[in-house]
Amino acid sequence: MNAELEKIIHDSNNIVFFGGAGVSTESGIPDFRSVDGLYNQKYKYPPETMLSHSFFVRNTPEFYDFYRNKMLFLDAKPNMAHIRLAELEKQGKLKAVITQNIDGLHQAAGSKNVLELHGSVHRNYCTKCGKFYGVQAIVQSSGVPKCSCGGTIKPDVVLYEESLNQDVLEKAVEYIENADVLIVGGTSLVVYPAAGLINYYRGNKLVLINKSSTMMDRRANLVISNSIGKVFE
Questions:
Q1: % of the chain beyond a pLDDT of 70
Q2: From CA 130, how far away is CA 49, in angstroms rounded?
Q3: Which pLDDT does position 139 carry in this prediction?
Q4: Was 126 annotated as part of a binding site?
Q5: Cβ of 112: how many Cβ atoms within 10 Å?
Q6: For the segment 191-232, what is each residue's pLDDT rounded down to a tens digit?
Q7: Which of 62, 140, 153, 157 has a C-alpha 20 to 30 A away from that of 90?
Q8: Cα gap 85→115, rounded to integer Å
Q9: How far apart are CA 144 and CA 50, in angstroms?
Q10: What are the phi and psi torsion angles at 62 (to 5°)?
């Protein structure tokens, strides 16, 4: 681990981690933004369209065809970043993980306090009666998954055109505002409103870990241009 980062972590008991797609790419989950070409080989529409609320409502069978093929990576295992963050939480140093990912890998690694800004593929609910279902309800059905009441089951993920869960957002803001150290990893900080969360940080230990540069690099106290799994090794 980077010596400066190690010292920052060692000296603090109030760390918050904010992560994006880059945290999961090393677990074999492709980054949405960099694989548009791959997505478009089979589908008539760009992924942003197919993962929109209106597409879900109007073209539910096509939505599920894409969703099952491209959004579910149930064999993926937590990588070093997930594991180390869970360890830091256990040690009482890390107070919360705020993630833009929907894969549940932070929980699989043992993290307890995970704020999922964009929801989770592991939770699904009936749009008619509200009954909750696990991910197997999606995997083991074909076509459009239906509830026992006859309603359509929808993944509890934030689709394009949908707003983020207000409670989760407010909790995330609170943790960031009160953090001594904010570590931001695996995100290019271009997706709003999530990227705007960093503006709530008031401290002077902002650490950015990302392979490519971000718009916030100038504001950071420490910038590490590397993959987050390698940094946390």
A1: 95
A2: 25
A3: 95
A4: yes
A5: 11
A6: 777 778 999 999 999 999 998 888 889 999 999 999 999 999
A7: 157
A8: 14
A9: 15
A10: -70, -35
104-128 average pLDDT score: 97
| Average pLDDT of span 148-162 | 96
Q: Is 161 left (phi over 0), alpha (psi -120 to 50) or beta?
A: left
Structure tokens at 74: 């149930």
Q: What count of other Cβ atoms lies within 10 Å of the Cβ of residue 110?
A: 14
* Residue 210 marked ligand-binding: yes
Structure confidence at residue 42 (pLDDT): 67
Architecture of domain 1-29+77-118+163-233: 3-Layer(aba) Sandwich (3.40)
**Helix H or strand E encompassing 68:** helix 60-70
Q: Is 209 annotated as a binding residue?
A: no
Furthest C-alpha separation in the chain: 57
E strand or H helix at 83: helix 80-90
Q: Which residues pair with 160 in a beta bridge?
A: 52
User: Residue 186 in contact with residue 22, Cβ under 8 Å?
Assistant: yes
- Report which residue type is found at 3: A
Q: Which amino acid makes up residue 71?
A: M
Residue-wise pLDDT tens digits, 17-46: 999 999 998 898 887 655 444 454 567 888
Average pLDDT, the chain: 92
Residues designated as active site: 118
3-state secondary structure at position 168:
helix
d(CA 224, CA 50): 34
Question: Is 187 annotated to bind ligand?
Answer: yes
Q: How many CB atoms lie within 10 A of CB 58?
A: 10
